């Protein structure tokens, strides 16, 4: 009797053991399969290292990504980097203290880096001062510390400038007339980088630009001109963000500056449209510069420093007449396709007004250094628009192209900024995307460890059930 009871107890123990075992086996199978699939999904992508994310023709342009990258790396970037250090191109005339025509200035900048080092009067080239009778503030001498260049040779060539005169630009809002509000800034001393200008003030400007003046077009938008305006601004915005991320204050107490890869990814790289728009803007500005080649080639880059001025002239010629650029990308952007149809002239007026508003909005940027670069780059874009759409010196000889000195300085510095951004995106983009891609898959690793925990609990359960069944 007792023996029978013991046998029965053992049988039921075994049955329980089998049932628990079967349940565990099923769970183990599920856990193993899900673990396998998680690991499989997480396996690092062994993509072909050569496979490029951006290939083919840059949308609405006439040049492909590969060509842009190689031309930029071999020709444009090295030439432009040197060109912008010459005295002619490094001093920009700007009105920094302007009232915002739309809302009161709410200066939101946190950092000292927001403020611009102005040039004391003795620093900028004498010929630049010629039309201006009023003095400039010289109380910011501390900013001249570490000045990278020797002061300009002030031996003057008293010859009047050819071509550098005050001509109205229908695309911009700036009043270039010299007066006491104008100041000269050495761009080399004021690099475009992180300034701490964030929050509602900065957001308000971008919102006003996009919502009121160049709304993002829908996929069905057929108006090329509106698309062009949006893409130009978005490309410029990408470039500004790339520069902020590439020269970021990583540790304020240690004053440590460096690259913020996460920011570069979050603001630009993760949005392919923003990268494409950057390439578009770059090609658009290259087209403007090459279209104005005759004018820019013959212009006088006179600062009174003959050696440096000759260098500027020669670098400019190398850029404009570069055989590689001419052969590989003869027409970076085809402006002849725009403003057709009956509504063409009206549309041009409308878009011109929108761009002028954007230009005026730069007076609302609540951080001096951002305002400086904002104004310079918007003037550069306005100059490109003027060259491509407002003057047709080739077909209408009575309307020869005329540019102001400041417009040329802005155009070339803008091109250099875009060229730097394109280079950074080309060289760093794939690595940053890989790093960020792996980080983004971290939740997967959590799932893996969760899977592992399930697996371990199951093994424990199996062990316990076997113990109790013994
Ligand atoms: C003219 C100007 C110049 C500036 N210069 C500097 C500077 O030199 N240094 C500095 O530290 N800060 C500068 N800022 C501030 C900087 O641009 C950002 O506004 C700030 O860093 C806050 O960034 P955010 O993440 O809020 O996004 P923001 O860059 O302010 O973007 C606002 C919104 O615009 C949209 N957006 C962003 N990028 C694009 C794009 N490429 N195309 C289309 N839409 C886009 C997104 O919806 C985003 O949420 C400048 C701002 C302006 C308006």
UniProtKB/TrEMBL annotation:
Membrane topology annotation: Peripheral membrane protein
Record-annotated disulphide pairs: 109-114, 367-370
Record keyword Repeat present: no
Pfam families recorded: ERO1
Gene Ontology molecular function: FAD binding; protein-disulfide reductase activity; thiol oxidase activity
Entry annotated with the keyword Signal: yes
InterPro entries for the chain: Ero1 (IPR007266), ERO1-like_sf (IPR037192)
Cofactor(s) required, per the database record: FAD
Protein's cellular compartments: Endoplasmic reticulum membrane
Gene Ontology biological-process entries: protein folding in endoplasmic reticulum
GO cellular component: endoplasmic reticulum membrane
Sorted UniProt keywords: Disulfide bond, Electron transport, Endoplasmic reticulum, FAD, Flavoprotein, Glycoprotein, Membrane, Oxidoreductase, Redox-active center, Signal, Transport
Residues annotated as catalytic: 367, 370
Chief location: endoplasmic reticulum
Sequence positions that bind FAD: 193, 195, 206, 234, 237, 267
Database matches in SUPFAM superfamilies: ERO1-like
Family listed: Belongs to the EROs family.
Quaternary context: May function both as a monomer and a homodimer.
Protein name: Endoplasmic reticulum oxidoreductin 1
Organism: Nyssa sinensis
């Amino acid at each position: 009797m007792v023996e029978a009871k013991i046998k029965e107890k053992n049988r039921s123990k075994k049955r329980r053991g089998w049932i628990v075992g079967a349940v565990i086996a099923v769970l183990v199978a599920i856990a193993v399969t899900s673990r396998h699939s998680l690991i499989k999904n997480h396996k690092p992508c062994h993509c072909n290292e050569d496979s490029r994310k951006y290939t083919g023709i840059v949308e609405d342009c006439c040049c492909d990504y590969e060509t842009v990258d190689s031309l930029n790396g071999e020709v444009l970037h090295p030439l432009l980097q040197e060109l912008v250090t010459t005295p002619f191109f490094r001093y920009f005339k700007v009105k920094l203290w302007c009232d915002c025509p739309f809302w009161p200035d709410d200066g939101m900048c946190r950092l000292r880096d927001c403020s611009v080092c102005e040039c004391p009067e003795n620093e900028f080239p004498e010929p630049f001062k010629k039309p201006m009778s009023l003095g400039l503030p010289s109380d910011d001498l501390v900013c001249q510390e570490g000045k990278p260049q020797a002061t300009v040779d002030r031996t003057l060539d008293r010859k009047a400038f050819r071509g550098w005169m005050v001509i109205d630009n229908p695309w911009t809002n700036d009043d270039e007339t010299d007066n006491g509000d104008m100041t000269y800034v050495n761009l080399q001393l004021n690099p475009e980088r992180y300034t701490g200008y964030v929050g509602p003030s900065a957001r308000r400007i971008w919102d006003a630009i996009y919502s009121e003046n160049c709304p993002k077009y829908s996929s069905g938008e057929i108006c090329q001109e509106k698309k062009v305006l949006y893409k130009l601004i978005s490309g410029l915005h990408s470039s500004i963000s790339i520069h902020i991320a590439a020269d970021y204050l990583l540790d304020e107490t240690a004053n440590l500056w460096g690259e913020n890869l996460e920011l570069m990814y979050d603001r630009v790289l993760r949005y392919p449209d923003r990268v494409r728009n950057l390439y578009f803007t770059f090609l658009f500005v290259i087209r403007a510069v090459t279209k104005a080649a005759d004018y820019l080639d013959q212009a006088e880059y006179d600062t009174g420093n003959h050696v440096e001025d000759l260098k500027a002239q020669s670098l400019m010629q190398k850029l404009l007449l570069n055989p590689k650029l001419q052969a590989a990308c003869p027409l970076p952007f085809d402006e002849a396709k725009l403003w057709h149809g009956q509504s063409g002239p009206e549309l041009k007026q409308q878009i011109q007004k929108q761009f002028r508003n954007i230009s005026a909005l730069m007076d609302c940027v609540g951080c001096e250094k951002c305002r400086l670069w904002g104004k310079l780059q918007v003037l550069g874009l306005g100059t490109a628009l003027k060259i491509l759409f407002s003057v047709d010196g080739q077909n209408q000889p009575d309307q020869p192209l005329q540019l102001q000195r400041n417009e040329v300085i802005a155009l070339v510095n803008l091109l250099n900024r875009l060229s730097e951004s394109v280079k950074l995106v080309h060289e760093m983009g794939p690595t940053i995307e890989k790093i960020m891609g792996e980080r983004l898959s971290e939740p997967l690793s959590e799932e893996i460890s969760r899977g592992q925990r399930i697996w371990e609990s199951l093994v424990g359960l199996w062990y316990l059930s076997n113990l109790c069944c013994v």
